[in-house]
Specification:
single chain; mainly alpha; 1 helix; rod-shaped; WD_REPEATS_REGION domain-containing protein
């Protein structure tokens, strides 16, 4: 029982960490894409 609880906590902590890293990566990716789009719009005529 103790082993299962420990494993459960470990899995939860790992999942939380992965989700946090994934959030940061997707957010930075979004910001980079947004910046590229704004630069492209600035260069377009009109």
């Amino acid at each position: 029982m103790f082993l299962q609880e420990t494993l459960g906590k470990l899995v939860t902590a790992t999942q939380n960490r992965v989700v946090m890293i994934w959030d940061i990566r997707s957010m930075s990716q979004f910001l980079v894409t947004k910046r590229q789009t704004e630069c492209t719009n600035d260069r377009s005529p009109g």
